[in-house]
Every structure is written in C-alpha cells, then in structure tokens.
Amino acid sequence: MRTKTKELIFQGALKAFAEKGFNETTMEQIAEICGVAKGTLYYNFSTKEDLYIFVMESGVQHFTSMIRDYIEIVSHDDFRERVIRLTEAHLDFFENQQDFCRLLLSRSWGTQERHHTVRHVLQEYFNLLESELHTAQGQGKLLASIDVKTAASSYFGMVGFTAMRAIIYGQSLDNVALRSSLQSLVLHMMGISDQE
C-alpha cells in the first residue's frame, strides 16, 4: 500500500514520464507536478531512475492484479472465456490508465539499463500470461506446437499496440467494433473458434 505522498509522486511522475519521456523530464518538474517539495521527492527517491522503476513496478503490479481479478471468476476449464476476460482486462486497464499505457509502450525504455528495468518489471506480467497458456496447453486447449513465450509476446503486442494506437488517435477503447475485432483476432491466434 502506497502512502499518500508516494501516491502523489506516482501520479505526478507517471504523468511527466508519459508526456515528456524519461530523458526530457527532470526531478524538479516532477516535484512541481506532484505538488511536493524537491527535498521530499529526493527523500523518497534518490535518483530519477529509482523513481522510474517505482512507477513501472507499481503500474505493472496494478495491471497484473486487475488481470487476475478478471480471470479468477472463470473456471480454468473454459479457456475461451478466460482469453476473452484477459483481453477485456487489458482494454479496461489501458482505457483507465492511458498515461501508463503510453509510458509502457513508448520509447522511454531508452538506455540499455532501462531496457533491463522494463524487462524485469514486465516479468510478473509475462509469468502470469505464460502460466495461463501453459495450463491451457496441458489441458489440450492450446496446440502443443505453439511456443508459449512467442504466444505471450504476440498477445501483448497485438493487444498493447491496438490500445496504444487508439489512445494516440483519441479513440475510446470502450468501443464495440474495436473490442469485437480484437477479440476475434486473439481467439483466432490462440486457435479458438470465436463462434461458440
């Protein structure tokens, strides 16, 4: 659970990083956006890199928690419905967390060190997704010939960049045509009929 100060810092830093990018954002600008003293910001985070890691980790934890909430209500036997719920969770999260979507899918990954940070932070997400796919494969609901890591990466790319494009063009993700088209594509990618 984040303190009130850390929540303020999280929201301000997320907004700054999403709008300006990592390199163009200063700690002074973040402190100003957050409405906290620069000393308070440095007391909590000694470097901008530390703050960036905190923002990414917090965002991904919230994301994976939401995904779990969406799919937990569906039996593991109903892979088709779990995939639908998984996709709904992604679109609902990105619709409500557009700054995080922009940050996650932007060029702010920057340096090799930041690539490592993003990979590390996203590991929890990919572990969840790959576990879901391995379970389905073990039940014979996902073709044994499909490489789970490739399927998880493809899924993330398909859903993530569809969401990002809509956000860039100012379109809502709460859009029936977008959701049904993406759902059909995802089900097809997983080898599931979308006509059930």
Automatic annotation (TrEMBL):
This is Fatty acid metabolism regulator protein. Keywords: DNA-binding. Pfam families: TetR_C_4 (PF08359), TetR_N (PF00440). The keyword Transcription does not apply. GO terms for molecular function: DNA-binding transcription factor activity; transcription cis-regulatory region binding. InterPro entries: Homeodomain-like_sf, HTH-type_TetR-like_transc_reg, HTH_TetR, Tet_transcr_reg_TetR-rel_C_sf, Tscrpt_reg_YsiA_C. It comes from Aneurinibacillus soli. The keyword Electron transport does not apply.
